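Request: How about a record?
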Amino acid sequence: MAKDEIILAFESSCDETSVAVIKNGDKILSNIIATQINSHKRFGGVVPEVASRHHVEEITIIIDDALTEAGISYEDVDAVAVTYGPGLVGSLLIGVTAAKTIAYAHHLPLIPVNHMAGHIYAAAFVTKLQYPVLALMVSGGHTELVMLTGPAEFSIIGETRDDAAGEAYDKIGRVLGISYPAGKEIDRLAHLGKDTFGFPRAMDNSDDLDFSFSGLKSAFINTVHHADQLHQELSHEDLAASFQAAVVDVLVDKTMTALQEHPVKQLIVAGGVAANQGLREALGARLATEMPDVELIVPPLRLCGDNAAMVGAAAHILRGKNVFAGETLNAEPNLNFARA
């Protein structure tokens, strides 16, 4: 009987410090996450230097917590994995340094993981993937359609040309006076309002699979500012519903077009915006009507945001392909998948 594979994984690309212990790529023995949301709320977004300091304060504590909760010691670990990009360079360096130190001290192989690959492979905790697979990657920093032609074989077939969807949520949240991160509250308000403003669906009818949310964000802000100048009070529920409808319409339309051009059996929705109920409902409804044979895979809410469990899942695939890093591994804040 084969020995279980145990991976100790690190994630620190933005404002979550996380360490997880993953068994055989699909079982979470522990997944400790130290969030910094309360520290960044007053600034309306993540402050890189503040994030880095928090990572330094938390990293050793949650390493111990992760090992304790999993009921293991370093002697049980087969490999160490870490997100090395993309992300905030200072934040990434904390995780990379910690992972390299442990790997060196305990003579363990080190596996470098792309943060976006981690988000996508969070789906491995839901079901077994059947390649090729299409992934809609939607987060605060990324909006991309990614094809997985095989294990850890990624190519971008569509991407945002300006703001990511999650970034747009946070920016219009500030206009509405919603504290960072704004996505969850806007989603809640959207379910209470109606799409009465008819905001633009940029690039919805274009010939490619790229996205653009900058125009939508500007239209939203201009609408609110114009009303303020006229001393008019607009419904926050209707504003949220109109904004979310515009975002979801474009995401769903582009994804359905991608499925027509790149037939697959499974669609993964990954990243922080995958937690958005409006997006989940709209995609599920379109698939059920138009492509009932395509399985929609959305990770549990706790695995949609940044976490180390997803890094461990991706590392399991990379270990099987003998992808390892040495002591020269460094943070790569602009790391990306190749464009198809």
Observations:
- The chain is about 40% helix and 20% strand.
- Residues 34 and 71 are 20 Å apart (CA to CA).
